[in-house]
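Technical annex, item 7. During the second reporting period the consortium partners agreed on a shared format for inverse folding records so that results from different sites could be compared directly. Each record opens with the tokenized structure and is followed by the designed sequence. A conforming record, contributed by the partner at site C, is shown below for reference.
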């Protein structure tokens, strides 16, 4: 199949998922065309079936706000026409779904009928999308997509409760390439960050408020009262300066390392003993799934779609949002006993395997086949 994937190229979960999806599909022989404004962070190297089309937004003195959506729609038209694209798969509704609608109309005038699949990822619905600044456009463009998918049952329910959407939403959970993450920890790296055998606690995110990184630090402080531990924070974003000063105020800055944005996260996760994701909301929690694939148990909040992937008392624990005491007690419970820790590690991996490539990618492939067939039969 010839598929165009539109996504954000940055470290956010939706861009990561879209890029990984394209890479797996390319490995399976499909031609994948990424359309975005920058090389996606997880798209390094060369692949015979992968094409990258950069959206350029020329500046002009009149433009206080360069019209990205217009440039994106034009790029979609160009890529579809010149590469025999059969399907546009857009990740994150804003502005990708509305740009796709525009491209579809332009292409229809030129006699080319192109179907659009919109995959909803989370904040495009729960935060930004429902804001009245964007709501009418998001609602309209979702309705106009041939197919809507959501990355969890929770996000599907959130979409129906926040928008007047009549069309069905298909749930296709996010996936992980378990073989890539399930690696032997790099000993030298482990020794460097935990020279005295301290337990390694980890968190990875885009450091937005919704991630509640202060809770991560609070849990860490409680754990290290009982067990020698270090905290590794991966990622970067608006909350970082506050977290740095919070750590200094609590005199634990020397036990916390900020690793910044990392694209080889599969080399870092395996050294962790525990992963924390105490988010206010998480439609899915791809970072937690990647940790589980690296055989790392997860303590997360029970918000959003997290209970669909992290199984309480099995792959880790689910605690109410903000329940720092409970999260700390659970972390200590997992970390202080070697045998318990080992059981949680194995369970985390077996839970991650349920979301492995082999289980999820065929769902996308059969969806694509169905949508392309329907489009061909109605076009002729
Ligand atoms: O919140 C983020 O980490 C970024 C955001 C995005 O769209 O890039 O992530 C959302 O999509 C991910 C992939 O489907 C999900 O794993 C995240 O749970 C979701 N984030 C939220 O719902 C807050």
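Designed sequence (site C submission):
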């Amino acid at each position: 199949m010839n598929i165009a994937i539109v996504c954000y190229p940055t470290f956010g979960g939706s861009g990561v998922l879209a890029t990984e999806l394209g890479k797996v599909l390319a490995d399976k022989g499909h031609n994948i065309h990424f359309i975005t404004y920058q090389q996606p962070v997880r798209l390094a190297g060369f692949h015979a079936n992968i094409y990258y089309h950069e959206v350029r937004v020329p500046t002009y003195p009149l433009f206080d706000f360069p019209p990205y959506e217009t440039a994106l729609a034009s790029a979609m038209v160009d890529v579809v026409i010149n590469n025999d694209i059969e399907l546009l798969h857009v990740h994150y509704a804003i502005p990708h779904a509305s740009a796709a609608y525009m491209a579809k109309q332009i292409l229809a005038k030129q006699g080319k009928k192109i179907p659009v699949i919109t995959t909803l990822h989370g904040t495009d619905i729960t935060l930004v999308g429902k804001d009245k600044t964007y709501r009418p456009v998001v609602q309209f463009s979702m309705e106009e997509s041939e197919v809507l998918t959501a990355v969890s049952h929770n996000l599907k329910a959130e979409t129906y409760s926040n928008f007047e959407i009549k069309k069905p939403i298909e749930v296709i959970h996010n996936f992980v390439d378990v073989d890539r993450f399930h690696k032997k920890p790099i000993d030298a790296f482990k020794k460097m960050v935990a020279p005295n055998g301290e337990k390694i606690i980890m968190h990875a995110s885009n450091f937005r408020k919704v991630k509640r990184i202060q809770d991560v630090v609070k849990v860490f402080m409680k754990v290290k009262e009982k067990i020698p531990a270090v905290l590794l924070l991966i990622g970067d974003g608006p909350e970082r300066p506050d977290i740095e000063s919070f750590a200094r105020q609590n005199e634990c800055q020397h036990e916390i390392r900020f690793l910044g944005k990392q694209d080889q996260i599969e080399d870092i996760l395996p050294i962790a003993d525990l992963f924390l994701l105490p988010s206010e909301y998480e439609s899915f929690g791809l970072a937690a799934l990647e940790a589980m694939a690296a055989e790392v148990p997860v303590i997360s909040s029970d918000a959003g779609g997290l209970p669909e992937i992290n199984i309480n008392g099995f792959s880790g624990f689910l605690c109410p949002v903000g329940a720092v005491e409970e999260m700390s007690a659970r972390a200590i419970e997992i970390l202080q006993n070697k045998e318990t820790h080992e059981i949680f590690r194995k369970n985390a991996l077996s839970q991650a395997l349920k979301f492995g490539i082999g289980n999820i990618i065929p769902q996308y492939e059969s969806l694509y086949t169905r949508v392309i067939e329907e489009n061909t039969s109605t076009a002729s």
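The domain at 178-353 is CATH 3.40.50.2000 (Rossmann fold). The two ends are 19 Å apart (CA to CA). All partners now use this format for quarterly exchanges.
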